[in-house]
Amino acid sequence: MNLVEEKLNLSENAIKVLERRYLKRDKNGNCTEKPSDMFRRVSLAIASGDLKFGKTQADVEKLAERFYKEITNCYFMPNSPTLMNAGRELGQLAACFVLPVEDSLEGIFETVKNTALIHKSGGGTGFSFSRLRPKNSVVRSTMGVSSGPVSFMEVFNAATEAVKQGGTRRGANMGILRVDHPDILDFINCKSDNNKLNNFNISVAITDKFMEALKNNTDYDLVNPQNNEVVARLNAKKVFDLIVDGAWRNGEPGIIFIDKMNADNPTPLVGQIESTNPCGEVPLLAYEACNLGSINLGKMVIDSANGPIVDWNKLAETTRTAIRFLDNVIAVNNYPLPQISEMVQNNRKIGLGVMGWADMLMKMGISYSSAEGTKLASQVMEFIDYESKCESIELSKERGRFNNFKGSIYDGKNFLYNKYKGKSAGKVSDEQWKELDSQIEKFGIRNATTTCIAPTGTISMIAGASGGVEPLFGLVFSRLIMDGTEMLEINPIFKDYAVKHGFYSEELMKEIAKTGSVAHVDKVPSDAKKIFVTAHDVSPYWHVKMQAAFQLHTDNAVSKTVNFEENATRADIEEAYILAYENNLKGITVYRNNSRQFQPMNLDAKKSDAQIEAEKSMKTVDEIKEETEEEYNPTGEIKTVKCPECGNEIQMAEGCFICLKCGYSGCS
User: Fold this and answer.
1) How many degrees, rounded to 5, is the angle at CA 178 between CA 172 and CA 182?
2) Residues ≥6 apart with Cβ < 8 Å to 177
3) What is the mean pLDDT of the chain?
4) Which of 13, 114, 201, 277 does the annotation list as catalytic?
């Protein structure tokens, strides 16, 4: 079957990933649909949700065509489980879930069972272990002692290892512990050995009280969750230093600001937020799920007499179509547990995010590391947030408000106005927010949340877009093709600019390919160096400020990585964490280049013997083998470590590892 369809304008890498991971197959493993078939399957399956709200089959087909055009033009792309499973027997369309971990043996192993069912369906899971009694606590029923949260995390890790995710994605978990839990020191150090808990990302839930103690260099309370009694005190600065040291060494633990997440909890009467999904961008109540999709901002730029501008009309149209699509996902989704189905139906949280942000900036000639860039980010996300709420109100008129509306943040006057008053980025006025409040008071709103910026590793590759809100990781790459010759892969926006401004040459592109960056290439003009920055050219300050610009108008959180050079210090990471808190981020992921010794990438493919040996030692053979699909000799020596889709480099971004060439990631 010829899978290349020129009318869809899909890249070679996009075709390969669709063929390997998304398209239907027969029993012999042969693809039985083309990309256009898959997009039609998805569009029709999601549009059929309208049948539950009194629409006709003709209405469904009209809506399906609307969805199909948005997706095939790469204006909008749903998350991977929706592309994989919509219109198929499994029908599980959500990426991730949060499950409760109760302080009893029965409760813990009930959650282990439910975790296995979710992983079997292709989902990831997030947990807070903060309810579990600390180690050495007496268990009254047996008069034994508790082994503590970290030991039970190992049980979840082993269960994840045993369950393969339907041939699509490996199980992923988020493990969270509050900073005031008595076992916090054990938790901070639980991944210092990279051979342990490899199916977990871990994050410390930082409280406002802790940050205040840190600021004042005082002690803070450790609280036993069994009885809420203070059992000890620790120095906040010493604990913070341990967190920073772990992040400096291997990127973990991450941190989330749990009080900031709960300040924006839309349904506080239903429960408190304790955990997030594995990549950290979706704070969820127990039994909630991620229902996510992303707008391709690179497609929202048009030429005008005064140069490139944002096509606000197209952005509004795409936003409204995407919100309707995501609400329909909830209507047709086949959830793995009845408790999840009930909670999702009651809150109807959806998360519309963005990708192609670096593409938009480059097309408009704006530097990522600039006030102009962060201002545009604020305007774009403010506009998407506003239009998403407008469409959610329209859906509420048609279908009813979300069931837990009463007692929610929207159940009162002027929530949006009070939240955004005086903070306009120039696209939505205070009066417009106030008018939306009056509409919500009258008609309600369909979705408890509408916006979230999630990882877009694989779907951004399908759309031909840069990932999420990250800068590019390289402008030019070189790779060897089958006959041994070198082929350059050049970012098309950069190539067009270089040709237009007269500095393009094959020799120059080869020089840039050595590092992927133009920052220290003499023949590249200074204006181009400002516009075409890569992840390691951007200072941590601007990484954080850009994340903050998007966070203000994002209901959930923003998945992003603050990339550090290998020579960054612990003080550099500490500074980024403090800046993140001061800028009202809900969490932050940092990664110092090469700090995870198993990291299988370098832009320069030449590695020292010490690097190679370190990479071998930090992960088990089975783990590397499963993730890379590479060959091994009988002694277990790793021959190569590659992306499973294209065999090229992987980098840390958006909270997880993503292939630089084809966009492959386990997170999207």
Assistant:
1) 120
2) 128, 129, 130, 149, 183, 184, 187, 202, 204, 205
3) 88
4) 277
Q: Which residues pair with 126 in a beta bridge?
A: 98, 174
Query: How many beta carbons lie within 10 A of that of residue 499, not counting itself?
Result: 11
Instruction: Note whether 474 and 459 are within 8 A (CB).
Output: no
The two tokens of residue 637 are 């020596």
Q: For position 666, what pLDDT does the model report?
A: 56
Average pLDDT over residues 313-322: 98
The distance from CA 153 to its chain's CA centroid, rounded to whole angstroms, is 22
Q: Measured between alpha carbons, how far is 493 from 526 in angstroms, rounded to an integer? A: 17
The Cα-based distances of 97 to 285, 341, 422 in angstroms read 9, 11, 35
Res 636 pLDDT > 80: no
Assess contact for 183 and 134: CB atoms under 8 A.
yes
Mean pLDDT lowest for which of 154-163, 176-185, 408-417, 444-453?
154-163
Based on the residue annotation, tell me whether 584 is a catalytic residue of this protein.
no
Residue 503 tokens, joined: 């500095």
Q: From the CB of residue 155, how many other CB atoms can be counted at a distance below 10 Å?
A: 15
Residues above pLDDT 90, as percent of the chain: 75
Q: Tokens at residue 22, please?
A: 């998304």
Q: What is the pLDDT of residue 457?
A: 82
Other Cβ atoms closer than 10 A to 418: 13
457: nearest Cα among 172, 86, 192: 172
Residues whose CB falls within 8 Å of the CB of residue 601, separated by 6 or more in sequence, listed in order: 649, 650, 651, 660
Query: For residue 268, what pLDDT is reported?
Result: 97
Helix (H, G, I), strand (E, B) or coil at 659: strand
> For this structure, is 279 an active site residue?
yes
Residue 146 confidence (pLDDT): 79
Q: Which H or E run includes 398?
A: helix 371-399
The conformation of residue 134, written as its DSSP 8-state character, comes to: P
Closest CA to 84 of 668, 576, 662: 668
The per-residue DSSP string of 426-437 comes to SSS-HHHHHHHH
Question: Are 127 and 173 spatial neighbours (Cβ–Cβ below 8 Å)?
Answer: yes
User: What is the arithmetic mean of pLDDT over 320-341?
Assistant: 97
Let me know the angle formed at the C-alpha of 336 by 332 and 340, rounded to the nearest 5 degrees: 80
Tens-place pLDDT, residues 188-206: 999 987 778 988 999 999 9
DSSP alpha helix (H) spans, 264-370: 312-332, 338-347, 357-364
Q: Which tens digit of pLDDT belongs to each residue from 491-538?
A: 999 999 999 999 999 999 999 999 999 999 999 999 999 999 999 999
Give strand pairing partners of 144. 139
For residue 431, give the amino acid letter: E
The pLDDT of 403-409, averaged and rounded, is: 97
The verdict on whether 228 is a catalytic residue reads no
Burial class (CB in 10 A: 0-12, 13-18, 19+), 57: exposed
pLDDT of residue 605: 35
pLDDT in tens, 270-290: 999 999 998 889 999 999 999
Q: Are 136 and 146 in contact (CB under 8 A)?
A: yes
Query: For position 44, what pLDDT does the model report?
Result: 98
Active-site pick, 70, 252, 274, 281 = 281
DSSP one-letter string for 509-570: HHHHHTTS--TT-TTS-HHHHHHS-BTTTS-HHHHHHHHHHHHTT-SS-B--EEEE-TT--H
List the catalytic residue out of 31, 74, 96, 279: 279
